[in-house]
Amino acid sequence: MIDFSLPADLEAERDRIRRFVIDKIVPYERDPRLTAHGPNDELRQELVELARAEKLLTIQAPVELGGRGLGHVEQAVLYEAAGWSTLGPVAMNCAAPDEGNMFLLSKVANPDQIDRYLMPVITGQQRSVFAMTEPDGAGSDPDQLATTATFDGTNFTINGRKWLITGADGAKTWIIMARLAANPHLPEGPTLFLADGDAAPAGGIVIERTMNTMDRNYVGGHGVVRFENLTLPRESVLGETGQALRYAQLRLAPARLTHCMRWLGAAERAQSIAVEHARTRTAFGKTIGEHEGVSFMLADNEIALHQCRLTIWHACWLMDQGHKARHESSMAKSFVSEELFKVADRCVQVLGGIGISDETVVEMIFRDMRAFRLYDGPTEVHKWAIGRKVLRK
């Protein structure tokens, strides 16, 4: 049986989150602390406290760690509501990269690591990063990982350079991917390590700079980072040595979908602004919405939003049933990112001149949405993986 209905309590919570974002969070969209590199930590903390007061902070965390233990479909419904403003997920502590990092740590970290590195992120006290992407290739193709780790039987020493590390500036919980060299003590290969951001810079983590990018929705922006003889104890290994790529996949499949959920909410916001403009703006004797050129764009948006929502829900339903859904999450990430970018682009077109200005939030959504086509794997990489699976059938 296929049932697309939502439980009444889930609908009520969706509506409550949307109202919270509209009433409490949207007013911060013109706050000067929303910088060219995203909201700063002072603004983030203020937003977090608003969500905490409404008992909406980190609701996705496992029940045993203080959250509600949401299923993937429940996340899809509630994250879409939160995404009405790009600051909504920041306030509710379900934005990238923290949301994906919390998921990974809850699955792989041992009890001591949970207390030290995960719980402060769950409670909103600190932020986290996932340091994998490198200037010379490692990113979509992690096999090109060049950051190295050596082990002397007691400590690891990490050296290498990363970039596009979201939230690096000011983050305290660091998940670092490095290639462990052959040694007589532990299995070699790509490995995840946990480090304390307070080690920067004297302790071996050097943040060279924050990159100038077209998006500005992530706290701390995207950093260029260098590890210079970063020394970590044996207990810093996250999971098992040599298993980083497997753990990365564990993190990426649901993270792809949560990106889709949040940006669906932002695209809905853009559509609502475009629709209102089309209802009130006049040209050639009638509202512009009465002209087919405009009404067809709004219709295409409505169709795309509906298709994206169903695609997300299906992949989430599969994961809730216990399936890995890597193929379906790749299809969702590829399809949804491309379609929502088209939605944002059409909204700019409907708005005309003001669409390229900051008179509305649509301009920011459009720029941020462009980057979404690259987050957690470019469209072309996902299509390549999808094509390989199709050919193997």
From TrEMBL:
SUPFAM superfamilies reported in the protein's UniProt record: Acyl-CoA dehydrogenase C-terminal domain-like (SSF47203), Acyl-CoA dehydrogenase NM domain-like (SSF56645)
Entry keyword Flavoprotein: yes
Domain Acyl-CoA dehydrogenase/oxidase N-terminal positions: 10-124
One cellular component term from this protein's GO annotations in UniProt: cytoplasm
Cofactor: FAD
PANTHER family named among the record's database cross-references: MEDIUM-CHAIN SPECIFIC ACYL-COA DEHYDROGENASE, MITOCHONDRIAL-RELATED (PTHR48083)
BP terms from Gene Ontology: fatty acid beta-oxidation using acyl-CoA dehydrogenase
Highest taxon listed in the record's lineage: Bacteria
Keywords for this protein: FAD, Flavoprotein, Oxidoreductase
Family to which this protein belongs: Belongs to the acyl-CoA dehydrogenase family.
Residues annotated as domain Acyl-CoA dehydrogenase/oxidase C-terminal: 245-390
Name this polypeptide is given: Acyl-CoA dehydrogenase family protein
Ranges where the Acyl-CoA oxidase/dehydrogenase middle domain occurs: 130-217
Phylogenetic classification of the source organism: Bacteria, Bacillati, Actinomycetota, Actinomycetes, Mycobacteriales
GO MF terms, alphabetically ordered: acyl-CoA dehydrogenase activity; flavin adenine dinucleotide binding
